[in-house]
Amino acid sequence: MSAFKDLEVKRIPQGVQVQYPKALFGTRKFDTKDLRELQGVHKAILGRPGLHEGWRAFYRYDKKERVLKIRFTEPGEELESPWERLGSA
Predict the structure, then answer these.
(1) Domain interval for residue 23
(2) How far apart are CA 50 and CA 30, in angstroms?
(3) Is the dihedral of CA 39, 48, 14, 81 positive or negative?
């Protein structure tokens, strides 16, 4: 994902964590461009044979810590707010 190429990306249990710069002014934060790319990657993965069933993706962005977390779940598992589901309901 080119939108995240200069950021620290780590695998975590059941997902991925993206650390944005912690400086107060003039740095990147999670924005609509990042969300569009994240949704595009999600849609592309769902279009691949064998990868379209059996999981869901949720995300949340912590503004204070500047951390984007992406979590993968079983099909019937829902995450409560502040998590938002990627893709259609």
Answers:
(1) 2-85
(2) 30
(3) positive
